[in-house]
Amino acid sequence: MATNNNVTTGWVGWVYFAGVLMVLRGISQAFLGITALINKHYLFLTGSNHGVVVTNAHAAAWGWVDLIVGILVLGAGFSLMHGSSWARIFAVVFIGASFLINMAFVSVFPVWAIIAMIVDVFIIYALVVHGREIAG
Questions:
Q1: 111 pLDDT exceeds 80?
Q2: In this predicted model, what pLDDT tens digit does every residue of 30-42 receive, in sequence order?
Q3: What whole-number distance in Å separates Cα of residue 31 and Cα of residue 63?
Q4: What is the pTM of this model?
Q5: How much is the CA Rg of the chain, to the nearest whole Å?
């Protein structure tokens, strides 16, 4: 019995979705970094007392980190949509980290964090199980 390995499933759409999300996230992360570098009084805050607060003394350091991460995620997102294997590995690690970060924020933003975690699981599944389909 021969199997057809060239079958493209609907999960390829999730792989493209992951790539588009990574491009958008990379752009927003880079802009966040640029904002922190330009505005010396920039503060990283969340909306409640339960969140993380980074003072403006650390804003420049976080600005560089955000800018570099944004550029990496942006490039990986475009590479992912072109079927790159390294981008799939990077994306799984990045989305896995996103899942863990969203777990940490469940008490602050419960609905958003749970929705984001569900989307992260679908994206990781699509990348791991069906990621090769996009390379062809």
A1: yes
A2: 888 898 888 866 6
A3: 9
A4: 0.73
A5: 17
